[in-house]
Write a structure and sequence with these properties.
Length: about 170
């Protein structure tokens, strides 16, 4: 399993170099698919998302794909995930992102691909693997987020880690 779990994405040269080491080849020879479901449910200005995507694209990938787990039949999304060298889970709501993997039926595919691909988590995309994700809404006062997305509860996309994590300390 090759994972690079970050708070702010591929934000500096050290993180970029770590990604290249995990890949074992240059980014120019690598295909990435950026899964953006975690951010899609939030209303308002999406210019930060666009800026982040442009920054990711500017890293010089051989192929740069952007996907939603609900963008067509699961088999089509699955083929896009399988064709990538890197699956990048973008930030937003970790509760919605984990739900989207499960609700789309693609969580088992993700579990399989974690053994074959490099996975990069960006904030929420890093937190979807917490075994105790069900405890987070109450612990971090995110019950309003459950309500916003119409979720009754939270669960990990793929339960991998025993951690309880509060990211972006000091953020508003």
């Amino acid at each position: 399993m090759r994972m690079l779990l970050t708070s702010g994405g591929i934000a500096n040269e050290m993180i970029r170099d770590a990604l290249v080491d995990l890949l074992g080849k240059p980014l120019a020879d690598s295909r990435v698919v950026v899964v953006i479901d975690a951010i899609l449910g939030f209303p308002g200005d999406s210019s930060t998302l666009v800026d982040h995507l442009e920054g990711l694209r500017a890293l010089g990938w051989a192929e740069f794909d952007i996907a939603s787990l609900f963008a067509g039949p699961a088999s089509l999304v699955e083929s896009r995930l399988r064709s990538a060298d890197v699956i990048l889970g973008y930030g937003g709501s970790n509760l919605w992102a984990a739900h989207a993997w499960r609700a789309s039926g693609l969580a088992p595919v993700l579990a399989e691909l974690l053994e074959q691909k490099v996975y990069v988590g960006w904030s929420a995309g890093s937190m979807i693997f917490a075994r105790e994700l069900d405890r987070w809404p109450a612990a971090f006062d995110d019950l309003d987020e459950l309500a916003l997305f119409g979720l009754d509860d939270a669960a990990p996309a793929v339960a991998l880690f025993d951690w309880f994590f509060a990211g972006h300390l000091g953020a508003d």
